[in-house]
Amino acid sequence: MKVFTAGDKSRAYCYHCLDIVHTTILLRDVRFSDGQGIAKNILVGVCDDCGSVVATPRSR
Ligand SMILES: [Zn+2]
Question: Where does the source fall among the domains of life (predicted)?
Answer without folding.
Answer: Bacteria
